[in-house]
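Forum > Structural Biology > Help requests

Title: Can anyone predict the 3D structure of DUF3533 domain-containing protein?

Hi all, first post here. I have the sequence for DUF3533 domain-containing protein but no way to get a structure on my laptop. I'd be grateful if someone could post the structure tokens.
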Amino acid sequence: MIVVILGIAAALFVGSYTYSTANPKPERVPIAVVGTLPGAQSAEVEVKLAHELGSSLDVRHVATDAEAFDQLQNQQVFAVVDIDVATRTVDVAVSSASGATVAQLLEQATPRATAGLGYTVNVRDANPLQPRDPHGLTIFYMMLAAVIIGFVGAIQLGVHANKLRPWERIGFTALYSLLGGFTICAMIDWIIGALTLPVFEVWLILALTMFTCGMIFTMFSSMFGRWAILPTWAVMVLLGNPSSGGSVAWPLLPRVIATIGGWLPPGASVNALHTAVYFRGHQHLWPFLVLALWSAVSVAVYLFERRVRGSTTAHASTADIGAA
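Reply #1:
Sure, ran it for you. Structure tokens for DUF3533 domain-containing protein below:
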């Protein structure tokens, strides 16, 4: 039985990652446009740009640069296109921090799409990646560390400290989560220097991620016993990591995978970390709600299961005494 499960797990693991990330291409790219080209030219440019990107465009016409850049900083769009008919210029602001591959595609595609119209195209990166993280993968690795150590830590508590009472186990999970989040920050910022972090905010995000993943395993352990690693692995690794948007930006993932990712702890963690590091002052509530919901449900189910099990054990003991 175990041999069969491991064989299936291996196939699902490689299949999940390959399907999600091996051939990334954008399905829909939202951009904000300030100003307009003449009608026929506008339609022509949109068609050409969509063809160059190999995806559909979600063009959002806005009145001012301020409104457009507010959408860019809130990660609602991946580029701002500012058209000035009077000077015949097109200024394109991409955002590598929103997705380096998408930014590169837009940077290459826009001049080709406007070629022959007599416009000068200027491209700049409004949110460049940090110099020591040119591919934007460090946040993904930070999330991986928090997720994996989160549930591995819970496994070790179950093996080596299985006499802990429920609230004690929850407390120790919170304790190693706080310590683990801090050490990840210290390694990335102070020791390696890969990213300059807003340490306190990132520390709390990592600690919440680690606690959530630890409690998810603890919940499954109370429900499924020795088989708890299977649902934990399915949620965190099989589905969560490839759909997180950490290694491949969400617009480049299959739409179903990207949608799932936002509801799982790895994706929520990447979302919050990404915003904290690259879009300071524009943090969203959603990823924290996702992590908090998973944590709350996990704690509640774990406490319920332990209470039911304790009640059952107590009844069994009473029955044994009565029989004696």
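The longest strand covers residues 28-34. The two ends are 40 Å apart (CA to CA).
Shout if anything looks off.
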